[in-house]
Structures are given as C-alpha cells and as structure tokens.
Design goal:
Layout lengths: L1 H21 L1 H23 L15 E2 L7 H13 L7 E5 L4 H12 L3 E4 L6 H11 L3 E4 L4 H5 L2 H6 L3 E4 L3 H5 L8 H9 L5 E2 L13 H4 L6 E6 L9 E5 H14 L7 E4 L6 H8 L2 H4 L2 E4 L5 H10 L4 E5 L2 H7 L13 E5 L3 H11 L3 E6 L8 E5 L9 E2 L2 H6 L3 E4 L26 E6 L16 H6 L1 E3 L7 E11 L4 E7 L4 E3 L2 E3 L1 H9 L4 E9 L8 E8 L4 E2 L2 E2 L5 E3 L2 E2 L1 H18 L8 E4 L15 H6 L10 E4 L5 E3 L2 H8 L6
Parallel strand pairs: 1-10, 2-3, 2-4, 3-7, 4-5, 5-6, 9-10, 9-11, 11-12, 12-13, 24-29
Antiparallel strand pairs: 7-8, 13-14, 15-20, 16-17, 17-19, 18-19, 19-20, 21-22, 23-24, 25-28, 26-27, 29-30, 30-31
Helix pairs in contact: 2-11, 3-4, 11-12, 15-16
C-alpha cells in the first residue's frame, strides 16, 4: 500500500511542478473561457447581433443617480428615429455624456439596425467637424448641455447637411417649471434655442418591432463607429461590427466571472469601446447590473463602490494611479470589489494598488478598437504582476495569429529575412511590434478598419508576413514575451527613440521614475537636440502636494490660482532624483531634461497623456515657462536656463 501512496504523491507533486513551470491551468482557464464565449457569440448571431438577451431586461441592468432606461423608452425612441426616415445601416451621430439617455439612444438605433457614431463629448471646433464629416450622417443627437459647443460651429455642421436634435426632455433642459409657463413665454424660451429641435420621443408608441426588421443584420454590420483618441492627429472612426462586439462583450463577462447578481462600476466614457462594448455590453449577456457614473471621480469612486455594493469595476490608463495618489482613507477597503478589469495598469503601481485597496484579482488585457487580436492576464499572484497577457502552449497552439516581430526602431519598418522575404518573429525577452492575423475567417480575426477612411484602413495591414498571401494587422505597439509565457507592453512604436546608439522605451522609463517617492505622475518622450544623433530623453513630471501645490485652472484652461512650490522640498527632490536615476537607469536611458509641471497633465477621455505638445515644445525656453533641469556631465540634475540652452545649441555642452 505504501508504494502506491508514494507513487500517487509523486505523481501529484510532478503535476504541481509541471503546472507551476508551464502554468497549464492558467492556460486552460483562458481557453475554456474562449470556447464558451464563441458558443455564446454563435447564439448571438442567431439573435441577429449585439443587443441585450431577452432575459436581461435593460431596465433592471443599469443603476444611476438618474432613472434607468426602460424597454418602453427604448422602443419610443426607436419609433422616433423611424419616423425621421432612419433605416438599416443609416448612421446617426451621437454627442452625449454617460447617462441612461446614451443607452436609450444606442439601443433604439440597434433595434432598427441603424449605426450610431459615438462622438467624443470633449471635442469641439475642427476636430468635431472632422468627426462629423467622417460619420457622413444626416442626424446629430446631442445632450442639451452640449448645445454651446455645437453653436460655435453651427455653420460648418449645417454645411455637412446635419439636422440637430436633443433627446433631453424640455422640462429638464428649460427648467423644472417649464410646464407652468404660459404659451407666449414658452415660445420665447424655445426661440432662444432655435438651431435644434427637441425629440419629444417620450410620448410615442412603445409597440415592439417585427422580427424581420433585424433578420437582415449580418455579423459584419457595424454596431457603432467608435473614434480613436486622437493623441497624434485627427481621430479615426473604427468600425465595431456585431461579430467582434458579441465576442468581446461575452468574453469579458466570462473571463471576469460576472454573475447576474454582480454589480459592475463603469466610469469610463461610453463614446469609447472599453466603456460601451465591454463595460456596459458585458451586462447584456451576463445579466449583471451596471453602476454607471457620469464621469470618473477620485472623490466619489470608493463611495459609489460601497453605496452600490460593487463587485467589479473597470479601469483604464491612469485611473488607478489617480486613486493611488489620493490620501489614504478608511473607505479604501470597505468595499466588496473582488476583481478590477481593464488595460494600462502600469507595473510601477500594480502591486501597490492591489495591496492598498485589497483587490484579489486584476484582469489586465490588451486590445484595440479596430484590432484583430487580444491578450489576457487574469492576475492573482505576484508572478502575474505587470503582464498584459499570458499565452501558454495551449493558447499558442489554438490561436496562432498573434505574434511579435522585429522592427526597425528608426524607420518603423518591419524587418524581413533577406533570404525568404518574410518577417522575423522575436525570441523571448526581445522587443518587437505585435501583429495580429487579419484573415477575416473568424469574428475575432476580421478586420473592418476605419469608416470612410480607406487609406488609413489599408495602412494598418501588411501582407506576406510569414507565408505568401497572408495578411496581418500592425498594432503599432512594442511588446515582448518572457520565457514563462507572459507578454509585456514595452512602448508605442513611435514613442521609442534612439539615444547613444540604444533604443529607449518611454514607457519603461516612465514606469521606473513613477516608482520614486514624490512623483505623482510623469510622461517621457524624446526631443531633438541640434548636432546630436537620435533624440534625448525628456520627462515631464507632476509632483506630489508636499513639494508642489498644483495651479488651479478653470474649464477653459486659464490659471485661476498659480502653483505654490516648497523650494526646500523641491531642491531635496531634485537631488534624490539624481541619485535615483544614477542607480536605477542605464546611463543612456537617463532623461537629459526634466520639466516640472505646474498643473496636471492634459489627458484624453481614456486617460492617455497628451504628450504631443510637450514633444513639440521640447526644451525651448521660449515655449516652456515651467522649471526645467538638465543632466550635467557630472551626473547630476541642475537648473536649466538660457545660458545652458545656448551651450547646448552651440554644441559646447555634453549630454
């Protein structure tokens, strides 16, 4: 008996060893979830595309400070669009904040198989006009409070052929006492807003639509047009089709373990795919309740999580950093959150965030609105921290169309084998660009590109990557994989720069600096220096309140109260930064310039730093009015002024 017991024990031990080395159980969890998601996606295809399942009543699946949408409201709104001549595949532009009205309008358009174009509610002027021109719609639906931004560009909007409507009820827009006004006063009030009409959909029919109305819906048809953030130029309208959206919304619900009794907190803007397709969309298959915030608020985040018994929340970009930078509070661990899901959790804050707020599981993922592949990392242990994905032997065997290939960091061209002409796959720990199969054979590998922008759509594709005739999509992102199957984000292809003959990752440097005491947030970029090859590193740093009390600005960016600097603390910080950089960074990777920001960085709606302007300004003291420091030949940061600038421009200073 003893030998049998010993044999069983040995087999179990061997099993644990093999699983520990190759993590088959982690691999299998992802594969099992993917199979289940594909099954549900096929079911959605039979139901004619993305929409709430019949058992998941949207009137019960949304919590908010305002009234949730009801099936009757969705149907009434749909009838209004039909009465205005909106038909299958017609586009309707939506300029709206996070609210039940956004959900009502979106679902109403899905009911009649029309396509909403989600316009970023933070844009105006030329960017707004560009977005509307790309959408090429005839109707623009907007929140009443955004009327001012539209009025400033009214001639251009009308020149594009748009009719403007707001779904905001008159009583809400004009004031609670609107119904008590006499007819003459009402007409005077309405005349002041004569460039648009109220939809007045609330009193229309709540009768359902024939099933035939959606029978023509194909999985290639768009669910919405969702615009890229536009950090480097005008935004592009990614086509989010029914097939990929069904796959995404079901996958995330399954991978996150969301149950009908769960409550998911969504603070991200619904005009992006993360908030809309994943954050809200997962509830349409899981049956969970969405707790929808108008916008992200550090002050209210944990209060809302506690008040609504939130079990899951969605993050992106720097959201978690803002929460971590807030003063510690008794609320930090009074919530019931067991999983946070999102992308962009940087390694320098990951473990600290989990520990401080007591969140057992982080589900980090990598994907793109227009992408044809994704990475997933369900992180429960220290070994998982920092990775954007895990692809073990099973995942690699079943999903072969996700690769990292060699790329020239200067030209951004893919490097090809001189003999075969094909791209070269990177080995472990080798940084390259991630490419994903775009063969259109499955929902997940179908590439729809950008609406009304054929050149940009084609520019993302590359042919003959690993064999003749294949097609892959370039992500524009640099990643690397470890020998134990974890995948890590390195940088954007355009952000990595060369200095002293070495490739420098801005994301890696920002992560390293972000770990230093005193730094609230930072962004790193390369700047051109006269007479120097490559680009020199520069870090724009926003400091904690103990060193610098940030300037207060109004809604249009004007400084109301200037920043207040603790000079002694700043001097000590710069000295510590010099020691830190010397110790933690290779000599070539140390930023040559430090810019001390007096107000928080400008960010996009998805919390991405808008560092394009910083890069343009470089170290030009005619443009940069904030304090700067430079890395001297003695290996220390010292104040950077006009005399130092002249030395560098004249080529007399050694960087």
């Amino acid at each position: 008996m003893a030998p049998i017991v010993a044999g069983v024990a040995a087999a179990i031990a061997a099993g644990y060893y093999i699983d520990g080395k190759y993590q088959f159980s982690k691999d299998f969890e992802l594969v099992k979830s993917g199979i289940k998601a594909r099954r549900q996606t096929k079911s959605a295809a039979c139901m004619n595309g993305l929409q709430p399942n019949a058992r998941n009543d949207p009137s019960r699946s949304l919590l908010s400070l305002r009234a949730p949408p009801t099936p009757g409201a969705i149907l009434s709104s749909a009838h209004w669009f039909v009465a205005r001549g909106v038909r299958r595949l017609d586009r309707v532009a939506m300029l709206m904040h996070n609210s039940p009205l956004f959900i009502i309008t979106w679902l109403a358009l899905l009911k009649i198989a029309a396509t909403p174009a989600f316009i970023n509610n933070q844009i105006n002027g030329s960017v707004l006009i560009h977005s509307l021109k790309v959408a090429d719609a005839k109707i623009l639906v907007f929140d009443y409070e955004l009327a001012g931004a539209l009025k400033d560009s009214l001639d251009e909007i009308r020149g594009l052929g748009y009719q403007l409507y707001t779904p905001t009820p008159k009583e809400q827009a004009m004031g609670q006492h609107y119904n008590q006004l006499d007819e003459e006063t009402r007409q005077a009030v309405e005349a002041s807003s004569s460039f648009f009409e109220f939809m007045d959909w609330q009193h229309l029919s709540t009768e359902g639509f024939p099933v035939e109305m959606r029978r023509q819906v194909e999985m290639r048809d768009p669910v919405a047009l969702i615009y890229t953030s536009g950090t480097t130029g005008f935004p592009k309208a990614a086509i989010m089709d029914h097939g990929r959206c069904c796959m995404a919304s079901t996958s995330w619900g399954i991978l996150c373990g969301v149950k009908p009794e769960d409550k998911v907190y969504v603070t991200l803007p619904l005009y992006h795919s993360a908030g809309a397709i994943i954050g809200v969309g997962q509830s349409w298959s899981s049956g969970s309740t969405v707790v929808l915030a108008r916008k992200f608020s550090v002050k209210n985040f944990w209060k809302d999580c506690i008040a609504y018994d939130v079990t899951h929340f969605q993050y992106i970009g720097e959201l978690c950093r803002y929460l971590l930078n807030a003063p510690e509070s008794p609320l930090d661990k009074q919530h019931k959150v067991r999983l946070a899901f999102g992308n962009g959790m940087r390694p320098d804050i990951w473990a600290k965030f989990q520990e401080r707020f007591g969140i057992p599981t982080i589900f980090e993922y990598y994907t793109m609105s227009e992408g044809t592949g994704a990475l997933f990392n369900i992180a429960r242990s220290p070994r998982d921290v920092g990775a954007v994905g895990f692809r073990g032997p099973i995942m690699r065997m079943l999903q072969k169309g996700v690769k990292i290939v060699k790329v020239d960091m200067d030209t951004e061209e893919l490097i090809r084998d001189k003999k075969t002409g094909y791209c070269i796959e990177c080995g472990p720990d080798e940084v390259g660009e991630m490419v994903t199969c775009a063969d259109n054979k499955t929902e997940s590998t179908r590439y729809s590109g950008y609406f009304n922008q054929p050149k940009m759509t084609k520019a993302k594709l590359v042919e003959n990557v690993f064999e003749k005739g294949d097609v892959f999509m370039r992500t524009g992102d640099l990643l690397y994989r470890s020998r134990d199957h974890y995948w890590y984000f390195a940088d954007r292809a355009g952000d990595t720069y060369r200095w002293k003959g070495e490739n420098v990752s801005t994301a890696e440097i920002a992560d390293t600096l972000g770990r230093m005491e005193g730094i609230a947030s930072c962004t790193v970029y390369g700047v051109t220096v006269p007479g120097q090859d490559g680009r020199a590193g520069m870090a724009a740093v926003f400091l904690q309140d103990s060193i610098l009390k940030a300037a207060t600005v109004d809604e249009v960016g004007n400084v109301v109260d200037p920043c207040v600097v603790n000079e002694v603390a700043l001097e000590g910080f710069v000295k510590q930064l010099s020691d830190y950089a010397n110790k933690r960074l290779p000599a070539y990777a140390v930023p040559r310039f430090i810019r001390i920001l007096e107000k928080e960085m400008t960010i996009t709606g998805t919390f991405k730093n808008m560092k394009v302007e910083y890069k343009k300004e470089g170290f030009d003291l005619n443009k940069v009015k904030e304090r700067m420091y430079w890395w001297t030949p003695q290996g220390r940061y010292l104040p950077f002024g006009h005399s130092e600038n002249e030395e560098i421009v004249a080529g007399r200073a050694r960087l």
